[in-house]
Write a structure and sequence with these properties.
Distance between the termini: 11 Å
Shape: elongated
Helix content: over 70%
Largest sheet: none
Structural class: mainly alpha
Order of helices and strands: HHHHHHH
Radius of gyration: 20 Å
Number of strands: 0
Number of helices: 7
Length: 171
């Protein structure tokens, strides 16, 4: 049963991670338009800065769970790799329970509240004169932390089973 849940979480974050990677194409296009406009007219576009940080921020935030799924977050591998798979699983379980799951839960809750307040206020960006609505962008933050929380729970289950059974081929 838990393997289906873990596979579902992994598939979801794989899909989201690969999908948001396509946003880099849009980012290249918008940066190029702004550069060409600036080069030929001497003026930057009003919208490019806002669009670019929203595209990059969306990619960065939504790729977090994908990076966790692929175990590509930064850690001190020189030390970590010297431990046995069982000891690494114990360290992962402790980290997930004490840091990752509580932090992801808190960040999901706080960014959800921020998003709801932003929608209620119909918040706009204060960064440029264009002032686009910012609340759709703020929806990405709770989504990102929710996906990270799901991936953390999936990792916890996988690592916990390794700790209990000693089998490093779980999930």
């Amino acid at each position: 049963m838990y393997i289906k849940a873990i596979n579902g979480i992994n598939a979801l974050n794989e899909f989201v991670g690969k999908s948001v990677s396509l946003l880099f194409i849009a980012l290249v296009i918008t940066v190029s338009i702004d550069l060409f406009t600036r080069y030929f007219t001497g003026k930057s576009t009003e919208w490019a800065f806002d669009i670019n940080y929203m595209i990059f921020g969306t990619n960065f935030m939504l790729a977090g769970a994908y990076a966790m799924k692929h175990d590509s977050h930064v850690r001190v591998d020189v030390i970590y790799q010297k431990f046995s798979p069982h000891t690494r699983a114990v360290l992962d379980v402790v980290f997930l329970v004490l840091v990752m799951i509580p932090l992801s839960s808190f960040m999901f809750y706080s960014t959800w509240i921020d998003f709801l307040n932003s929608v209620a206020a119909r918040e706009t960006s204060m960064v440029s004169s264009w002032r686009p609505p910012i609340y759709p962008y703020k929806a990405v933050m709770p989504l990102a932390f929710f996906l990270l929380l799901l991936q953390s729970i999936g990792h916890f289950i996988t690592k916990f089973v390794i700790v209990l059974k000693g089998d490093s081929n779980v999930g």
